[in-house]
Amino acid sequence: MTPIFTVPVSLAERSYEITIRAGLLEKLGSELKHHAVQRKVAVVTDRRVARHYLKTVSETIKRYGIEPVPIILDPGERSKTLKTVESVLDVLARHRFERSSVLLALGGGVVGDVAGFAASIYQRGMSYIQVPTTLVAQVDSSVGGKTGVDHRLGKNLIGSFFQPRAVLIDPLVLRTLPTREWVAGLAEVIKYGIIADASFFSYLQRYMPDLLSQAPIVVSTVVKRSCEIKAEVVSADERESDRRRILNYGHTIGHALEALGGYQSLVHGEAVGIGLVQEADLACFQGWCSHEVVEGIRRIVKAAGLKDTMPRWTPSKIWKAMLHDKKVSAGRVIGVWPTRIGEVHIASLEKPVFDRWYVASQSA
Ligand SMILES: NC(=O)c1ccc[n+]([C@@H]2O[C@H](COP(=O)([O-])OP(=O)(O)OC[C@H]3O[C@@H](n4cnc5c(N)ncnc54)[C@H](O)[C@@H]3O)[C@@H](O)[C@H]2O)c1
Ligand SMILES: [Zn+2]
Question: Can you give the residue ranges of every domain in the chain?
Answer without folding.
Answer: 5-173, 179-211+241-363
